[in-house]
């Protein structure tokens, strides 16, 4: 299976598609670094040996966590306005600026407002990237490898989260931003070589530029490949022309309330609820605190790094098999597994409060590994790919942005409430609440989530 995957990605036709995916994902790696940085850093800045000149309270910690959701929300609204007007590449270039500012603010933080602004910019970068990149990659990728390339968005993010865990655990506070500032520079310079996607250029009636872009990403190396590339481009051009004739009327609210659109919105809304209300994202942001509350015998920061490694294996598993077994099966397994894992975690911590379970105080780590692994094979790895593929082509950009706005609101709410839930409800009830949402998502998606593997990106 791994060999099939390698051959499909590294053959000459798809080599530049893989290169483009790797380049844009520099910033998703960076976003993951910003997310992973928080969990070990909270312990440092709340300790008597804090590297900062100010104290951070529990209320301010909850705002630090949730500001990423507000940043993501603002990014979703901004990108929704720019994506079709300015193009994918302009939006991609744009991300370098807030990401660089984020680490400048972290380095020079003189009060908690600097950290609020840094987390806001971290959310802005991620919120924009997770809208633009799946659409950009879907438009340049061959159908046979689209799932694998799109899941690399979350693979890069998880590598970044792991790097954030490790660097902020073992390096001084002010060293991390110095290293991280290199990422937006490399990202911006590398993106200069990549052209705009052919489907977007065809929408703008830039036929010559579209043909050059298509040839760049398909990379024909011999006469046979060149003939195939020209044939494929002509097929794309005719399909886009037919779609434009069919959808000649401007986009209106009626396009958002057709039966296929409403069905897609319903599935997207539940996907967002499942991802955020099962609190997997909160676990990642507050992992050290979660382990500390569970009575885990191992060092909380070391356990957090272990879980960061597990995230990578989860998304890599998805990358290997998503274009073989499909999206729907992985999403269902992921939701059900996370739900059962969270319920089991809550049962353990509840029993540990009433009985002596010191011989099993390694179990929270094992359960969290299972939860995070299963979350990453579907819920996390395929979330944005699933959003892009669910919606009809005419409303895809707008509908994806609307869905990610909904997700950003949920991110803000869950990250704001998670520390308060842990404080007032305790870890057991919080985990049962998370598991219940994942089970609800599984039941809904079992009946209403369609399989989208192989779906054309210009298909309604």
TrEMBL record:
Coiled-coil segments: none
Keywords: Cell membrane, Membrane, Sugar transport, Transmembrane, Transmembrane helix, Transport
Membrane topology: Multi-pass membrane protein
Domain named Major facilitator superfamily (MFS) profile: residues: 20-453
Entry annotated with the keyword ATP-binding: no
Membrane-crossing residue ranges in chain numbering: 16-38, 58-83, 90-110, 116-137, 149-167, 173-194, 264-284, 304-322, 329-350, 362-385, 397-418, 430-449
Protein name in the entry: Facilitated trehalose transporter Tret1-like
